[in-house]
Design goal:
5 helices, single chain, alpha/beta, 6 strands, about 20% strand, Nucleotidyltransferase, domain 5
Length: about 150
């Protein structure tokens, strides 16, 4: 088992610390929620970024008249917002792993962001990562995570 398990998606980072079993046979290996975990990072939405308030552009207008924002522009803005959210998640993961002293750690994130998230991590954080796998487990109960990640010896 890795010393640190980080579960992430584009708006949430949850980190768990592995605690080994002790000398007492009743003291089993388990996971502990990290201090301050989970961390919620609400991504900006298109609606929050582009509205019909004064000084902003509308989505469209009457036929034959130019509009302030095309659908292509909207798509590009959505992509940029996703990239910014991913950078915030990666920065939080970098911070968590750094504070923990760069132990061996495992990352679990949805498959559609996993590759980009790994690439957004700092080199030192990425080198300390021993494994990654796809999945969005950020809201899974701790008992279910222990069943999944702690293997009986």
């Amino acid at each position: 088992m890795h010393k640190l398990l980080i579960l992430a998606n584009s708006g949430r980072v949850r980190f768990l610390v592995f605690k080994e079993s002790g000398d007492d046979p009743l003291d089993k290996a388990h996971l502990l929620e990290g201090p301050g975990s989970p961390v919620e990072m609400h991504a900006a939405s298109i609606h929050d970024t582009v509205t019909n308030h004064a000084g902003r552009f509308s989505q469209g207008g009457p036929l034959g008249r130019g509009a302030g924002m095309s659908y292509r522009d909207k798509h590009e803005l959505e992509g940029q917002l996703e990239i910014e959210a991913l950078k915030r998640v990666a920065a939080k993961i970098d911070e968590i792993v750094s504070v923990a002293g760069y132990p061996g750690w495992q990352l679990v994130a949805p498959s559609h962001i996993l590759t980009d998230l790994r690439e957004a991590l700092a080199d030192v954080t990425r080198r300390a990562m021993s494994q990654s796998e796809p999945g969005d487990l950020t809201k899974l109960p701790l008992a279910d995570l222990e069943k999944r990640f702690i293997r009986a010896a």
